[in-house]
């Protein structure tokens, strides 16, 4: 499946109409050093998102949860979205373009929060391929080294992280069922007669 480096995947509506699968991750061969994948769509971060993530992860810092505290005692004058949510959101945005076929996420090499994210900000992300290395122990996989940046609606970069992901080669995918392994075939019954002839 061809994808250009400026806009990400070029899967067309015609291709999907023919039953071709949407891009979800890449094989080792599909990664090109220097390529940048612009993840779509962005996500507007709500107060609810931030509070739920904080409560689920037991991060009760008042900078994230207490409007009065943030407004009266911090340099920001308002709540700041918890950094681990920003990172998790950007990581999730990158899955369809980068790690949707991954065998393993091996390492987060660096993670920097370079500017705050606030409730109501919309985050966008893009990932650049920094390098790729074939596995020395198994010939059906390799490791890609990528950098993801996240930025808000004004283009202000808020988060930068680098990671290494083990991804399959084409022969690995072929041996395990191709693009969508394990996908069942819909079975006709009284509620659905089957595909139209």
Automatic annotation (TrEMBL):
<feature type="region of interest" description="Disordered">
    <location>
        <begin position="172"/>
        <end position="197"/>
    </location>
</feature>
<dbReference type="InterPro" id="IPR029069">
    <property type="entry name" value="HotDog_dom_sf"/>
</dbReference>
<dbReference type="Pfam" id="PF19315">
    <property type="entry name" value="MC_hydratase"/>
</dbReference>
<protein>
    <submittedName>
        <fullName>MaoC family dehydratase</fullName>
    </submittedName>
</protein>
<feature type="region of interest" description="Disordered">
    <location>
        <begin position="1"/>
        <end position="20"/>
    </location>
</feature>
<dbReference type="InterPro" id="IPR048274">
    <property type="entry name" value="MC_hydratase"/>
</dbReference>
<dbReference type="InterPro" id="IPR052342">
    <property type="entry name" value="MCH/BMMD"/>
</dbReference>
């Amino acid at each position: 499946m061809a994808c250009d480096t400026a806009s990400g995947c070029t899967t067309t509506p015609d291709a999907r109409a023919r039953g071709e699968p949407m891009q979800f991750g890449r094989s080792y061969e599909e990664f090109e050093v220097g390529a940048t994948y612009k993840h779509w769509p962005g996500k507007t971060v709500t107060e609810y998102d931030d509070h739920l993530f904080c409560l689920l992860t037991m991060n009760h810092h008042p900078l994230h949860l207490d409007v009065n505290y943030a407004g009266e005692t911090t340099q920001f004058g308002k709540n700041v979205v918890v950094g681990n949510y920003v990172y998790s959101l950007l990581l999730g945005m990158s899955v369809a373009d980068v790690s949707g076929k991954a065998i393993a996420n091996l390492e987060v090499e660096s993670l920097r929060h370079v500017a705050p994210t606030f409730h109501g900000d919309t985050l966008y992300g893009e990932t650049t391929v920094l390098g790729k290395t074939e596995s020395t122990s198994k010939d059906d996989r390799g490791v890609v080294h990528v950098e993801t940046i996240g930025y808000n609606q004004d283009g202000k970069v808020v988060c930068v992280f680098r990671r290494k992901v083990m991804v399959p080669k084409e022969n690995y995918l072929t041996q395990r069922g191709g693009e969508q392994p394990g996908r069942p075939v819909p079975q006709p019954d009284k509620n659905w007669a089957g595909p139209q002839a």
